[in-house]
Automatic annotation (TrEMBL), chains A, B:
Gene3D superfamilies: Annexin (1.10.220.10). One of its GO terms (cellular component) is plasma membrane. It comes from Nelumbo nucifera (Sacred lotus). The gene is LOC104608822. Keywords: Annexin, Calcium, Calcium/phospholipid-binding, Metal-binding, Repeat. The lineage of its organism: Eukaryota, Viridiplantae, Streptophyta, Embryophyta, Tracheophyta. Ca(2+) 3 binds at residue 298. PROSITE patterns: ANNEXIN_2. GO terms for molecular function: calcium ion binding; calcium-dependent phospholipid binding; phosphatidylserine binding. This is Annexin-like protein RJ4.
Amino acid sequence: MATLVVPDHPSPVQDAESLRKACQGWGTDEKAIIQILGHRNAVQRNQIRKAYEELYQENLIKRLESELSGDFEKAVYRWLLDPAERDAVLAHVAVKDSMLDYQTIIEIACVRSSEELLAVKRAYHLRYKHSLDEDVASHTTGDFRKLLVALVSTFRYDGDEINVSLAESEAKLLHEVIKGKAFSHEEIIRILSTRSKSQLNATFNCYRDAHGTSITKSLLDDPADEFLAALRMAIRCITFPQKYFEKVLRNAVNKGRTDEDALTRVIVTRAEKDLNDIKELYHKRNNASLEHAINKHTSGDYKAFLLALLGDKEL
Amino acid sequence: MATLVVPDHPSPVQDAESLRKACQGWGTDEKAIIQILGHRNAVQRNQIRKAYEELYQENLIKRLESELSGDFEKAVYRWLLDPAERDAVLAHVAVKDSMLDYQTIIEIACVRSSEELLAVKRAYHLRYKHSLDEDVASHTTGDFRKLLVALVSTFRYDGDEINVSLAESEAKLLHEVIKGKAFSHEEIIRILSTRSKSQLNATFNCYRDAHGTSITKSLLDDPADEFLAALRMAIRCITFPQKYFEKVLRNAVNKGRTDEDALTRVIVTRAEKDLNDIKELYHKRNNASLEHAINKHTSGDYKAFLLALLGDKEL
Protein backbone atom coordinates (compact mmCIF):
# COMPACT_ATOMS: atom_id res chain seq x y z
CA MET A 1 0.00 0.00 0.00
CA ALA A 2 1.03 3.54 -0.81
CA THR A 3 1.40 6.31 1.76
CA LEU A 4 0.73 9.23 -0.55
CA VAL A 5 -2.46 11.12 0.21
CA VAL A 6 -4.01 13.12 -2.62
CA PRO A 7 -7.13 15.32 -2.71
CA ASP A 8 -9.99 14.54 -5.11
CA HIS A 9 -9.60 16.15 -8.53
CA PRO A 10 -7.07 18.91 -7.93
CA SER A 11 -6.79 21.36 -10.84
CA PRO A 12 -3.42 21.19 -12.65
CA VAL A 13 -3.83 24.80 -13.83
CA GLN A 14 -4.54 26.06 -10.33
CA ASP A 15 -1.62 24.03 -9.00
CA ALA A 16 0.67 25.50 -11.66
CA GLU A 17 -0.49 28.99 -10.77
CA SER A 18 0.06 28.41 -7.05
CA LEU A 19 3.54 27.04 -7.72
CA ARG A 20 4.35 30.05 -9.86
CA LYS A 21 3.22 32.32 -7.06
CA ALA A 22 5.30 30.37 -4.54
CA CYS A 23 8.39 30.97 -6.69
CA GLN A 24 7.87 34.66 -7.35
CA GLY A 25 8.87 37.75 -5.43
CA TRP A 26 11.19 37.86 -2.43
CA GLY A 27 12.02 34.37 -1.14
CA THR A 28 10.29 31.16 -1.99
CA ASP A 29 7.18 29.78 -0.32
CA GLU A 30 8.46 26.26 0.39
CA LYS A 31 5.41 25.41 2.46
CA ALA A 32 3.10 25.98 -0.49
CA ILE A 33 5.33 23.85 -2.70
CA ILE A 34 5.25 21.00 -0.20
CA GLN A 35 1.52 21.31 0.29
CA ILE A 36 0.91 20.91 -3.43
CA LEU A 37 3.61 18.58 -4.72
CA GLY A 38 3.71 16.43 -1.60
CA HIS A 39 0.11 15.48 -2.25
CA ARG A 40 -0.08 14.75 -5.98
CA ASN A 41 0.42 11.41 -7.71
CA ALA A 42 2.56 10.76 -10.80
CA VAL A 43 -0.22 11.47 -13.28
CA GLN A 44 -1.17 14.69 -11.50
CA ARG A 45 2.44 15.86 -11.28
CA ASN A 46 2.81 15.30 -14.97
CA GLN A 47 -0.31 17.37 -15.65
CA ILE A 48 1.05 20.15 -13.46
CA ARG A 49 4.37 20.15 -15.35
CA LYS A 50 2.50 20.42 -18.65
CA ALA A 51 0.11 23.12 -17.41
CA TYR A 52 3.03 25.14 -16.02
CA GLU A 53 4.95 24.88 -19.30
CA GLU A 54 1.92 26.03 -21.27
CA LEU A 55 1.06 28.89 -18.95
CA TYR A 56 4.55 30.30 -18.44
CA GLN A 57 6.74 28.86 -21.24
CA GLU A 58 9.06 27.75 -18.51
CA ASN A 59 10.16 24.33 -17.30
CA LEU A 60 8.79 23.79 -13.79
CA ILE A 61 11.58 21.43 -12.79
CA LYS A 62 14.28 23.89 -13.83
CA ARG A 63 12.51 26.73 -12.05
CA LEU A 64 12.25 24.76 -8.82
CA GLU A 65 15.89 23.72 -9.10
CA SER A 66 16.85 27.37 -9.16
CA GLU A 67 14.56 28.24 -6.24
CA LEU A 68 15.32 25.37 -3.88
CA SER A 69 18.54 23.91 -2.55
CA GLY A 70 20.18 21.02 -0.76
CA ASP A 71 18.41 17.79 0.09
CA PHE A 72 15.02 19.43 -0.29
CA GLU A 73 15.78 20.44 -3.89
CA LYS A 74 17.06 16.95 -4.69
CA ALA A 75 13.98 15.30 -3.22
CA VAL A 76 11.55 17.61 -5.06
CA TYR A 77 13.47 17.13 -8.31
CA ARG A 78 13.36 13.33 -8.07
CA TRP A 79 9.73 13.39 -7.03
CA LEU A 80 8.67 15.52 -10.00
CA LEU A 81 10.11 13.12 -12.57
CA ASP A 82 8.15 10.23 -14.06
CA PRO A 83 9.03 6.98 -12.25
CA ALA A 84 10.97 5.62 -15.25
CA GLU A 85 12.72 8.93 -15.85
CA ARG A 86 13.57 9.14 -12.15
CA ASP A 87 15.06 5.66 -12.13
CA ALA A 88 17.11 6.56 -15.22
CA VAL A 89 18.47 9.59 -13.35
CA LEU A 90 19.16 7.55 -10.21
CA ALA A 91 20.93 4.85 -12.24
CA HIS A 92 22.98 7.42 -14.13
CA VAL A 93 24.11 9.11 -10.93
CA ALA A 94 24.94 5.68 -9.50
CA VAL A 95 27.00 4.69 -12.54
CA LYS A 96 28.90 7.98 -12.70
CA ASP A 97 29.71 7.87 -8.99
CA SER A 98 33.46 7.44 -8.67
CA MET A 99 32.85 4.52 -6.30
CA LEU A 100 29.99 3.12 -8.41
CA ASP A 101 26.90 2.96 -6.23
CA TYR A 102 26.01 -0.67 -6.95
CA GLN A 103 23.21 -0.70 -4.40
CA THR A 104 21.02 1.67 -6.42
CA ILE A 105 21.70 -0.26 -9.62
CA ILE A 106 20.79 -3.59 -8.04
CA GLU A 107 17.71 -2.04 -6.49
CA ILE A 108 16.42 -0.71 -9.80
CA ALA A 109 17.32 -3.88 -11.70
CA CYS A 110 15.85 -6.31 -9.18
CA VAL A 111 12.88 -4.56 -7.57
CA ARG A 112 11.25 -3.23 -10.73
CA SER A 113 9.11 -5.51 -12.90
CA SER A 114 10.43 -6.45 -16.35
CA GLU A 115 8.25 -3.84 -18.02
CA GLU A 116 9.21 -1.16 -15.51
CA LEU A 117 12.91 -1.90 -15.98
CA LEU A 118 12.43 -1.71 -19.71
CA ALA A 119 10.79 1.71 -19.35
CA VAL A 120 13.82 2.82 -17.34
CA LYS A 121 16.13 1.65 -20.12
CA ARG A 122 14.07 3.54 -22.71
CA ALA A 123 14.16 6.70 -20.58
CA TYR A 124 17.93 6.24 -20.19
CA HIS A 125 18.39 6.02 -23.99
CA LEU A 126 16.37 9.17 -24.50
CA ARG A 127 18.14 11.17 -21.83
CA TYR A 128 21.75 10.06 -22.14
CA LYS A 129 22.01 8.79 -25.74
CA HIS A 130 23.58 5.65 -24.33
CA SER A 131 22.22 2.42 -23.00
CA LEU A 132 22.17 1.63 -19.29
CA ASP A 133 23.76 -1.75 -20.02
CA GLU A 134 26.67 -0.12 -21.80
CA ASP A 135 27.29 2.45 -19.07
CA VAL A 136 27.19 -0.17 -16.34
CA ALA A 137 29.51 -2.42 -18.38
CA SER A 138 32.03 0.29 -19.09
CA HIS A 139 32.19 1.51 -15.47
CA THR A 140 32.71 -1.88 -13.86
CA THR A 141 35.19 -4.74 -14.04
CA GLY A 142 35.55 -8.35 -12.99
CA ASP A 143 32.87 -10.12 -10.98
CA PHE A 144 30.93 -6.95 -10.28
CA ARG A 145 30.63 -6.30 -13.99
CA LYS A 146 29.40 -9.83 -14.64
CA LEU A 147 26.76 -9.56 -11.95
CA LEU A 148 25.57 -6.01 -12.56
CA VAL A 149 25.46 -6.22 -16.36
CA ALA A 150 23.54 -9.47 -16.15
CA LEU A 151 21.01 -8.03 -13.69
CA VAL A 152 20.53 -4.84 -15.66
CA SER A 153 20.28 -6.49 -19.09
CA THR A 154 17.83 -9.23 -18.34
CA PHE A 155 14.21 -9.18 -19.44
CA ARG A 156 12.77 -11.73 -17.03
CA TYR A 157 9.63 -13.70 -17.62
CA ASP A 158 7.04 -12.14 -15.31
CA GLY A 159 4.53 -14.97 -15.04
CA ASP A 160 3.64 -17.10 -12.03
CA GLU A 161 4.38 -20.53 -13.52
CA ILE A 162 6.90 -22.52 -11.52
CA ASN A 163 8.90 -25.55 -12.55
CA VAL A 164 9.35 -27.45 -9.27
CA SER A 165 11.96 -29.92 -10.45
CA LEU A 166 13.99 -27.08 -11.94
CA ALA A 167 13.75 -25.23 -8.61
CA GLU A 168 15.04 -28.33 -6.81
CA SER A 169 17.90 -28.94 -9.21
CA GLU A 170 18.97 -25.31 -9.23
CA ALA A 171 18.75 -25.08 -5.44
CA LYS A 172 21.10 -28.06 -5.32
CA LEU A 173 23.41 -26.50 -7.87
CA LEU A 174 23.51 -23.24 -5.91
CA HIS A 175 24.25 -25.09 -2.69
CA GLU A 176 27.17 -26.96 -4.25
CA VAL A 177 28.67 -23.83 -5.70
CA ILE A 178 28.26 -21.88 -2.44
CA LYS A 179 29.62 -24.78 -0.38
CA GLY A 180 32.70 -24.69 -2.59
CA LYS A 181 32.93 -20.93 -1.94
CA ALA A 182 32.77 -20.25 -5.69
CA PHE A 183 30.62 -17.20 -5.05
CA SER A 184 31.24 -15.57 -8.40
CA HIS A 185 30.53 -18.81 -10.20
CA GLU A 186 28.75 -18.17 -13.46
CA GLU A 187 25.87 -20.44 -12.48
CA ILE A 188 24.95 -18.21 -9.54
CA ILE A 189 24.88 -15.19 -11.82
CA ARG A 190 23.00 -17.04 -14.55
CA ILE A 191 20.26 -18.28 -12.22
CA LEU A 192 19.92 -15.00 -10.34
CA SER A 193 19.83 -12.87 -13.46
CA THR A 194 17.72 -14.90 -15.87
CA ARG A 195 15.08 -16.86 -13.94
CA SER A 196 11.68 -15.35 -13.25
CA LYS A 197 11.07 -13.99 -9.76
CA SER A 198 8.46 -16.67 -9.03
CA GLN A 199 10.90 -19.36 -10.10
CA LEU A 200 13.66 -17.85 -7.95
CA ASN A 201 11.37 -17.73 -4.93
CA ALA A 202 10.63 -21.41 -5.45
CA THR A 203 14.34 -22.17 -5.80
CA PHE A 204 15.27 -20.28 -2.61
CA ASN A 205 12.46 -22.05 -0.72
CA CYS A 206 13.82 -25.41 -1.89
CA TYR A 207 17.25 -24.26 -0.74
CA ARG A 208 15.98 -23.49 2.74
CA ASP A 209 13.97 -26.72 2.93
CA ALA A 210 16.90 -28.87 1.91
CA HIS A 211 19.64 -27.17 3.90
CA GLY A 212 17.87 -25.63 6.88
CA THR A 213 19.27 -22.19 6.19
CA SER A 214 18.45 -19.40 3.78
CA ILE A 215 20.62 -18.74 0.78
CA THR A 216 21.32 -15.20 1.99
CA LYS A 217 22.70 -16.61 5.28
CA SER A 218 24.87 -19.01 3.26
CA LEU A 219 26.24 -16.02 1.41
CA LEU A 220 27.44 -14.39 4.65
CA ASP A 221 30.83 -16.07 4.52
CA ASP A 222 32.83 -12.85 4.79
CA PRO A 223 30.82 -9.80 5.95
CA ALA A 224 33.41 -7.46 4.44
CA ASP A 225 33.17 -8.98 0.96
CA GLU A 226 31.30 -6.45 -1.19
CA PHE A 227 30.51 -8.94 -3.94
CA LEU A 228 28.76 -11.18 -1.42
CA ALA A 229 26.90 -8.15 -0.11
CA ALA A 230 25.76 -7.41 -3.67
CA LEU A 231 24.52 -10.98 -4.14
CA ARG A 232 22.55 -10.88 -0.90
CA MET A 233 21.13 -7.50 -1.85
CA ALA A 234 19.94 -8.78 -5.23
CA ILE A 235 18.30 -11.79 -3.60
CA ARG A 236 16.55 -9.64 -1.01
CA CYS A 237 15.36 -7.18 -3.66
CA ILE A 238 13.90 -10.07 -5.66
CA THR A 239 12.30 -12.00 -2.84
CA PHE A 240 11.09 -9.39 -0.35
CA PRO A 241 11.66 -5.82 -1.52
CA GLN A 242 9.70 -4.26 1.37
CA LYS A 243 11.97 -5.89 3.91
CA TYR A 244 14.98 -4.83 1.90
CA PHE A 245 13.76 -1.21 1.87
CA GLU A 246 13.10 -1.31 5.61
CA LYS A 247 16.76 -2.16 6.11
CA VAL A 248 17.92 0.61 3.77
CA LEU A 249 15.87 3.11 5.79
CA ARG A 250 17.17 1.71 9.08
CA ASN A 251 20.75 2.03 7.92
CA ALA A 252 20.08 5.51 6.56
CA VAL A 253 19.10 6.88 9.97
CA ASN A 254 20.94 4.62 12.40
CA LYS A 255 24.53 4.90 11.31
CA GLY A 256 25.74 8.09 12.92
CA ARG A 257 25.51 10.31 9.86
CA THR A 258 22.09 10.36 8.19
CA ASP A 259 22.22 9.10 4.59
CA GLU A 260 19.84 11.59 2.96
CA ASP A 261 20.31 10.15 -0.53
CA ALA A 262 19.11 6.72 0.53
CA LEU A 263 16.29 8.19 2.59
CA THR A 264 15.08 10.32 -0.32
CA ARG A 265 15.43 7.47 -2.80
CA VAL A 266 13.36 4.99 -0.83
CA ILE A 267 10.65 7.43 0.17
CA VAL A 268 10.33 9.04 -3.25
CA THR A 269 10.32 5.76 -5.20
CA ARG A 270 8.00 3.86 -2.85
CA ALA A 271 5.50 6.52 -1.66
CA GLU A 272 3.10 5.62 -4.45
CA LYS A 273 3.80 1.89 -4.23
CA ASP A 274 4.32 0.06 -0.94
CA LEU A 275 5.72 2.58 1.52
CA ASN A 276 2.94 1.79 3.95
CA ASP A 277 4.07 -1.84 4.18
CA ILE A 278 7.65 -0.69 4.55
CA LYS A 279 6.58 1.69 7.34
CA GLU A 280 4.87 -1.15 9.18
CA LEU A 281 7.92 -3.37 8.87
CA TYR A 282 10.04 -0.48 10.11
CA HIS A 283 7.85 0.05 13.13
CA LYS A 284 7.93 -3.64 14.05
CA ARG A 285 11.67 -3.91 13.63
CA ASN A 286 12.67 -0.66 15.40
CA ASN A 287 9.96 -0.21 18.04
CA ALA A 288 9.49 3.31 16.74
CA SER A 289 7.77 4.81 13.74
CA LEU A 290 9.57 5.89 10.58
CA GLU A 291 8.06 9.34 11.08
CA HIS A 292 9.73 9.50 14.48
CA ALA A 293 13.10 8.68 12.94
CA ILE A 294 12.66 11.28 10.22
CA ASN A 295 11.62 13.87 12.75
CA LYS A 296 14.75 13.11 14.71
CA HIS A 297 17.28 12.86 11.88
CA THR A 298 16.18 15.45 9.32
CA SER A 299 15.00 19.02 9.50
CA GLY A 300 13.38 21.99 7.80
CA ASP A 301 11.62 21.82 4.45
CA TYR A 302 13.29 18.53 3.64
CA LYS A 303 11.76 16.93 6.71
CA ALA A 304 8.35 18.46 6.00
CA PHE A 305 8.44 17.15 2.44
CA LEU A 306 9.38 13.59 3.47
CA LEU A 307 6.63 13.59 6.09
CA ALA A 308 4.14 14.76 3.46
CA LEU A 309 5.09 11.82 1.23
CA LEU A 310 4.80 9.54 4.23
CA GLY A 311 1.10 10.33 4.47
CA ASP A 312 0.91 13.49 6.53
CA LYS A 313 -2.78 14.27 6.17
CA GLU A 314 -2.44 18.06 5.97
CA LEU A 315 -3.60 18.77 2.39
CA MET B 1 14.01 -2.94 -50.56
CA ALA B 2 11.50 -5.72 -50.18
CA THR B 3 10.78 -8.33 -52.85
CA LEU B 4 7.23 -9.13 -51.82
CA VAL B 5 4.62 -8.11 -54.37
CA VAL B 6 1.07 -7.54 -53.07
CA PRO B 7 -2.13 -6.56 -54.91
CA ASP B 8 -4.03 -3.39 -53.98
CA HIS B 9 -6.59 -3.88 -51.23
CA PRO B 10 -7.14 -7.65 -51.20
CA SER B 11 -10.15 -8.73 -49.12
CA PRO B 12 -9.22 -10.73 -46.00
CA VAL B 13 -12.62 -12.41 -46.00
CA GLN B 14 -12.34 -13.44 -49.63
CA ASP B 15 -8.80 -14.67 -48.98
CA ALA B 16 -9.98 -16.70 -46.00
CA GLU B 17 -12.76 -18.21 -48.09
CA SER B 18 -10.37 -19.11 -50.90
CA LEU B 19 -7.95 -20.70 -48.42
CA ARG B 20 -10.80 -22.72 -46.89
CA LYS B 21 -11.76 -23.91 -50.36
CA ALA B 22 -8.14 -24.81 -51.12
CA CYS B 23 -8.06 -27.01 -48.00
CA GLN B 24 -11.38 -28.78 -48.52
CA GLY B 25 -12.29 -31.88 -50.45
CA TRP B 26 -9.89 -34.37 -51.97
CA GLY B 27 -6.30 -33.10 -51.93
CA THR B 28 -5.13 -29.60 -51.24
CA ASP B 29 -4.86 -26.82 -53.78
CA GLU B 30 -1.29 -25.73 -52.99
CA LYS B 31 -1.19 -23.40 -55.96
CA ALA B 32 -4.08 -21.36 -54.63
CA ILE B 33 -2.43 -21.19 -51.21
CA ILE B 34 0.80 -19.92 -52.74
CA GLN B 35 -1.00 -17.45 -54.94
CA ILE B 36 -2.70 -15.90 -51.91
CA LEU B 37 -0.24 -16.15 -49.05
CA GLY B 38 2.84 -15.60 -51.22
CA HIS B 39 1.48 -12.16 -52.06
CA ARG B 40 0.25 -10.73 -48.78
CA ASN B 41 2.20 -8.63 -46.30
CA ALA B 42 2.32 -9.11 -42.52
CA VAL B 43 -0.69 -6.90 -41.81
CA GLN B 44 -2.76 -8.60 -44.51
CA ARG B 45 -1.77 -12.09 -43.33
CA ASN B 46 -2.84 -11.16 -39.85
CA GLN B 47 -6.21 -9.97 -41.13
CA ILE B 48 -6.63 -13.23 -43.05
CA ARG B 49 -5.87 -15.26 -39.91
CA LYS B 50 -8.48 -13.28 -37.99
CA ALA B 51 -11.10 -13.47 -40.75
CA TYR B 52 -10.54 -17.23 -41.07
CA GLU B 53 -10.91 -17.76 -37.33
CA GLU B 54 -14.14 -15.74 -37.27
CA LEU B 55 -15.65 -17.43 -40.31
CA TYR B 56 -14.77 -21.03 -39.47
CA GLN B 57 -13.90 -21.12 -35.74
CA GLU B 58 -10.69 -22.80 -36.79
CA ASN B 59 -7.05 -21.76 -36.55
CA LEU B 60 -5.73 -21.20 -40.08
CA ILE B 61 -2.15 -22.03 -39.14
CA LYS B 62 -3.16 -25.35 -37.57
CA ARG B 63 -5.33 -26.21 -40.55
CA LEU B 64 -2.53 -25.51 -43.01
CA GLU B 65 -0.11 -27.51 -40.88
CA SER B 66 -2.38 -30.50 -41.22
CA GLU B 67 -2.83 -30.00 -44.96
CA LEU B 68 0.77 -29.32 -46.00
CA SER B 69 4.03 -31.12 -45.35
CA GLY B 70 7.81 -30.95 -45.48
CA ASP B 71 9.73 -27.79 -46.28
CA PHE B 72 6.69 -26.21 -47.86
CA GLU B 73 4.67 -26.59 -44.66
CA LYS B 74 7.53 -25.18 -42.59
CA ALA B 75 7.92 -22.18 -44.89
CA VAL B 76 4.19 -21.39 -44.92
CA TYR B 77 4.00 -21.79 -41.15
CA ARG B 78 6.90 -19.40 -40.53
CA TRP B 79 5.54 -16.96 -43.09
CA LEU B 80 2.10 -16.83 -41.51
CA LEU B 81 3.41 -15.82 -38.10
CA ASP B 82 3.95 -12.20 -37.06
CA PRO B 83 7.62 -11.23 -37.46
CA ALA B 84 8.23 -11.15 -33.69
CA GLU B 85 6.31 -14.39 -33.13
CA ARG B 86 8.27 -16.00 -35.97
CA ASP B 87 11.59 -14.94 -34.50
CA ALA B 88 10.51 -16.32 -31.14
CA VAL B 89 9.76 -19.68 -32.81
CA LEU B 90 13.05 -19.62 -34.73
CA ALA B 91 14.99 -18.79 -31.58
CA HIS B 92 13.22 -21.48 -29.60
CA VAL B 93 13.97 -24.14 -32.22
CA ALA B 94 17.58 -22.92 -32.28
CA VAL B 95 17.93 -23.15 -28.50
CA LYS B 96 16.34 -26.58 -28.26
CA ASP B 97 18.50 -27.97 -31.06
CA SER B 98 20.79 -30.57 -29.51
CA MET B 99 23.74 -28.83 -31.16
CA LEU B 100 22.43 -25.33 -30.33
CA ASP B 101 22.04 -23.41 -33.58
CA TYR B 102 23.98 -20.33 -32.54
CA GLN B 103 23.80 -18.79 -35.99
CA THR B 104 20.06 -18.20 -35.79
CA ILE B 105 20.36 -16.76 -32.30
CA ILE B 106 23.13 -14.36 -33.31
CA GLU B 107 21.18 -13.38 -36.40
CA ILE B 108 18.05 -12.50 -34.44
CA ALA B 109 19.98 -10.75 -31.68
CA CYS B 110 22.23 -8.69 -33.95
CA VAL B 111 20.21 -7.96 -37.10
CA ARG B 112 16.99 -6.84 -35.44
CA SER B 113 16.66 -3.34 -34.01
CA SER B 114 16.44 -2.95 -30.24
CA GLU B 115 12.67 -2.56 -30.39
CA GLU B 116 12.30 -5.54 -32.73
CA LEU B 117 14.43 -7.72 -30.47
CA LEU B 118 12.35 -6.62 -27.52
CA ALA B 119 9.17 -7.63 -29.36
CA VAL B 120 10.74 -11.05 -29.95
CA LYS B 121 11.45 -11.40 -26.23
CA ARG B 122 7.88 -10.46 -25.40
CA ALA B 123 6.53 -12.98 -27.91
CA TYR B 124 8.88 -15.58 -26.41
CA HIS B 125 7.54 -14.93 -22.89
CA LEU B 126 3.98 -15.28 -24.09
CA ARG B 127 4.57 -18.45 -26.04
CA TYR B 128 6.99 -20.39 -23.87
CA LYS B 129 6.44 -18.97 -20.35
CA HIS B 130 10.18 -18.49 -20.14
CA SER B 131 12.55 -15.74 -21.16
CA LEU B 132 14.78 -16.07 -24.20
CA ASP B 133 17.75 -14.98 -22.08
CA GLU B 134 17.14 -17.76 -19.59
CA ASP B 135 16.77 -20.45 -22.22
CA VAL B 136 19.92 -19.37 -24.03
CA ALA B 137 21.79 -19.21 -20.72
CA SER B 138 20.69 -22.64 -19.57
CA HIS B 139 21.49 -24.34 -22.87
CA THR B 140 25.02 -22.99 -23.26
CA THR B 141 28.26 -23.00 -21.32
CA GLY B 142 31.60 -21.24 -21.22
CA ASP B 143 32.54 -18.59 -23.79
CA PHE B 144 29.55 -19.30 -25.99
CA ARG B 145 27.24 -18.62 -23.09
CA LYS B 146 28.97 -15.35 -22.28
CA LEU B 147 28.71 -14.17 -25.87
CA LEU B 148 25.20 -15.36 -26.68
CA VAL B 149 23.57 -14.29 -23.42
CA ALA B 150 25.15 -10.86 -23.73
CA LEU B 151 23.97 -10.44 -27.33
CA VAL B 152 20.45 -11.64 -26.58
CA SER B 153 20.02 -9.64 -23.36
CA THR B 154 21.21 -6.25 -24.51
CA PHE B 155 18.90 -3.35 -25.21
CA ARG B 156 21.20 -1.21 -27.37
CA TYR B 157 20.87 2.50 -27.85
CA ASP B 158 19.52 2.90 -31.39
CA GLY B 159 20.52 6.49 -32.13
CA ASP B 160 23.06 7.79 -34.63
CA GLU B 161 25.28 9.74 -32.22
CA ILE B 162 28.89 8.66 -32.33
CA ASN B 163 31.66 9.30 -29.83
CA VAL B 164 34.78 9.40 -32.01
CA SER B 165 37.36 9.28 -29.25
CA LEU B 166 35.56 6.33 -27.69
CA ALA B 167 35.58 4.60 -31.08
CA GLU B 168 39.32 5.16 -31.34
CA SER B 169 40.09 3.96 -27.84
CA GLU B 170 37.90 0.88 -28.13
CA ALA B 171 39.35 0.03 -31.57
CA LYS B 172 42.77 0.14 -29.93
CA LEU B 173 41.57 -1.99 -27.02
CA LEU B 174 40.07 -4.56 -29.41
CA HIS B 175 43.29 -4.69 -31.41
CA GLU B 176 45.39 -5.32 -28.33
CA VAL B 177 43.13 -8.08 -27.10
CA ILE B 178 42.95 -9.73 -30.54
CA LYS B 179 46.70 -9.42 -31.05
CA GLY B 180 47.16 -11.27 -27.77
CA LYS B 181 44.75 -13.94 -29.05
CA ALA B 182 42.46 -13.36 -26.07
CA PHE B 183 39.42 -13.83 -28.28
CA SER B 184 36.98 -14.56 -25.51
CA HIS B 185 38.24 -11.57 -23.53
CA GLU B 186 35.41 -9.92 -21.68
CA GLU B 187 36.15 -6.55 -23.31
CA ILE B 188 35.37 -7.95 -26.78
CA ILE B 189 32.06 -9.27 -25.53
CA ARG B 190 31.28 -6.09 -23.62
CA ILE B 191 31.92 -3.81 -26.59
CA LEU B 192 30.17 -6.03 -29.12
CA SER B 193 27.11 -6.58 -26.96
CA THR B 194 26.51 -3.19 -25.39
CA ARG B 195 27.57 -0.43 -27.80
CA SER B 196 25.08 0.99 -30.30
CA LYS B 197 25.38 -0.21 -33.88
CA SER B 198 26.43 3.25 -35.08
CA GLN B 199 29.13 3.36 -32.45
CA LEU B 200 30.33 -0.13 -33.38
CA ASN B 201 30.51 0.81 -37.05
CA ALA B 202 32.67 3.79 -36.10
CA THR B 203 34.87 1.57 -33.92
CA PHE B 204 35.37 -1.01 -36.67
CA ASN B 205 36.17 1.74 -39.18
CA CYS B 206 38.81 3.10 -36.79
CA TYR B 207 40.16 -0.42 -36.48
CA ARG B 208 40.52 -0.76 -40.23
CA ASP B 209 42.05 2.71 -40.59
CA ALA B 210 44.61 2.11 -37.87
CA HIS B 211 45.58 -1.45 -38.72
CA GLY B 212 44.96 -1.79 -42.46
CA THR B 213 42.75 -4.83 -41.99
CA SER B 214 39.17 -5.40 -40.94
CA ILE B 215 38.37 -6.76 -37.50
CA THR B 216 36.62 -9.77 -39.04
CA LYS B 217 39.83 -10.66 -40.92
CA SER B 218 41.76 -10.31 -37.66
CA LEU B 219 39.36 -12.80 -36.12
CA LEU B 220 40.19 -15.45 -38.73
CA ASP B 221 43.04 -16.89 -36.69
CA ASP B 222 41.74 -20.45 -36.74
CA PRO B 223 39.02 -21.12 -39.34
CA ALA B 224 37.85 -24.17 -37.41
CA ASP B 225 37.29 -22.25 -34.17
CA GLU B 226 33.52 -21.96 -33.75
CA PHE B 227 33.72 -19.19 -31.18
CA LEU B 228 35.69 -17.04 -33.63
CA ALA B 229 33.11 -17.85 -36.31
CA ALA B 230 30.39 -16.66 -33.93
CA LEU B 231 32.23 -13.40 -33.26
CA ARG B 232 32.67 -12.72 -36.99
CA MET B 233 29.03 -13.57 -37.57
CA ALA B 234 27.87 -11.11 -34.92
CA ILE B 235 30.05 -8.37 -36.38
CA ARG B 236 28.78 -9.00 -39.91
CA CYS B 237 25.15 -9.06 -38.73
CA ILE B 238 25.68 -5.70 -37.02
CA THR B 239 27.64 -3.92 -39.73
CA PHE B 240 26.24 -5.21 -43.03
CA PRO B 241 23.33 -7.64 -42.59
CA GLN B 242 22.52 -7.81 -46.32
CA LYS B 243 26.01 -9.06 -47.11
CA TYR B 244 25.76 -11.51 -44.24
CA PHE B 245 22.46 -12.86 -45.59
CA GLU B 246 23.92 -13.17 -49.10
CA LYS B 247 26.54 -15.47 -47.65
CA VAL B 248 23.99 -17.53 -45.75
CA LEU B 249 22.04 -18.03 -48.98
CA ARG B 250 25.21 -18.88 -50.91
CA ASN B 251 26.19 -21.50 -48.35
CA ALA B 252 22.64 -22.85 -48.26
CA VAL B 253 22.69 -23.77 -51.97
CA ASN B 254 26.39 -24.29 -52.73
CA LYS B 255 27.43 -26.88 -50.20
CA GLY B 256 26.36 -30.14 -51.77
CA ARG B 257 23.20 -30.67 -49.74
CA THR B 258 20.74 -27.77 -49.87
CA ASP B 259 20.09 -26.23 -46.43
CA GLU B 260 16.35 -25.65 -46.68
CA ASP B 261 16.06 -24.31 -43.14
CA ALA B 262 18.52 -21.49 -43.81
CA LEU B 263 16.98 -20.78 -47.20
CA THR B 264 13.50 -20.56 -45.73
CA ARG B 265 14.66 -18.49 -42.79
CA VAL B 266 16.40 -15.82 -44.86
CA ILE B 267 13.70 -15.55 -47.51
CA VAL B 268 10.79 -15.54 -45.09
CA THR B 269 12.36 -13.04 -42.67
CA ARG B 270 13.73 -10.66 -45.33
CA ALA B 271 11.06 -10.73 -48.09
CA GLU B 272 9.29 -7.75 -46.57
CA LYS B 273 12.51 -5.98 -45.59
CA ASP B 274 15.63 -5.98 -47.76
CA LEU B 275 15.55 -9.16 -49.82
CA ASN B 276 15.90 -7.15 -53.01
CA ASP B 277 19.25 -5.78 -51.87
CA ILE B 278 20.31 -9.25 -50.80
CA LYS B 279 19.29 -10.58 -54.25
CA GLU B 280 21.42 -7.95 -55.95
CA LEU B 281 24.41 -8.75 -53.79
CA TYR B 282 23.86 -12.43 -54.54
CA HIS B 283 23.77 -11.82 -58.27
CA LYS B 284 26.96 -9.79 -58.19
CA ARG B 285 28.82 -12.30 -56.06
CA ASN B 286 27.69 -15.48 -57.84
CA ASN B 287 27.21 -14.37 -61.47
CA ALA B 288 23.77 -15.91 -61.36
CA SER B 289 20.45 -14.88 -59.90
CA LEU B 290 19.08 -16.17 -56.62
CA GLU B 291 15.99 -17.33 -58.53
CA HIS B 292 18.25 -19.44 -60.73
CA ALA B 293 19.79 -21.09 -57.67
CA ILE B 294 16.41 -21.76 -56.13
CA ASN B 295 15.11 -23.19 -59.38
CA LYS B 296 18.08 -25.50 -59.44
CA HIS B 297 18.22 -26.59 -55.81
CA THR B 298 14.58 -26.79 -54.70
CA SER B 299 11.42 -28.19 -56.23
CA GLY B 300 7.65 -28.43 -56.18
CA ASP B 301 5.41 -26.26 -54.05
CA TYR B 302 8.30 -25.25 -51.82
CA LYS B 303 10.14 -23.81 -54.82
CA ALA B 304 7.03 -22.06 -56.10
CA PHE B 305 6.43 -20.51 -52.68
CA LEU B 306 9.99 -19.21 -52.33
CA LEU B 307 9.86 -17.76 -55.85
CA ALA B 308 6.58 -16.04 -54.99
CA LEU B 309 8.22 -14.40 -51.96
CA LEU B 310 11.14 -13.43 -54.16
CA GLY B 311 8.87 -11.24 -56.23
CA ASP B 312 7.37 -13.54 -58.80
CA LYS B 313 4.83 -11.19 -60.38
CA GLU B 314 2.07 -13.75 -60.93
CA LEU B 315 -0.64 -12.51 -58.55
